[in-house]
Amino acid sequence: QVQLVESGGGLVQPGGSLRLSCAASGRTSSTRAMGWFRQAPGQEREFVAAVRRGTSVTYYADSVRGRFTISRDNAWNALYLQMNSLNVEDTGVYYCAADPTIILANMRNTREYADWGQGTQVTVSS
User: Fold this and answer.
1) Which of 38, 50, 76, 125 yields a CA-CA distance of 20 to 30 A from 70?
2) Coil, strand or helix at 50
3) What local confidence, expressed as pLDDT, does residue 74 receive?
């Protein structure tokens, strides 16, 4: 099991930027993939971005591609999400997730991740 703690959320104006961080501890050596998800009020949790061990390929939701960048440290102890050109539709609670066995086809699927952080609130408003 991996313990995840997110930080870096806050209030930002449209067009602004935020950098989210996720600190991972526990059995991080077993992590196969890590990702970011978000949940807006009254909506289901949705995929934002993910990265898989053994490859430099990153995966993004269409709504954030070109604006958000996911990255990690070499030891898989930290995950980051650089968010630029934020708009009001990006508002929500952002969650970090990790899984030791997830396959490539399921990396965008919320239900396939075993470990989750508590979330950090991102509010985009003028």
Assistant:
1) 125
2) strand
3) 87
- CA dihedral in degrees (124, 73, 1, 23; nearest 10)? -40
Distance CA 49, CA 65 (A): 9
Alpha carbon distance 5, 21 (integer Å): 8
- Give mean pLDDT in consecutive 10-residue pieces for the chain, a chain of 126 residues: 96 98 94 96 96 89 97 93 98 96 90 96 97
> Beta-strand (E) ranges in 1-126?
2-7, 10-12, 18-26, 33-39, 46-52, 58-60, 68-72, 78-83, 92-99, 115-116, 120-124
C-alpha span between 13 and 83 (Å, rounded) = 12
In the numeric block, the tokens 């630029």 are attached to 84
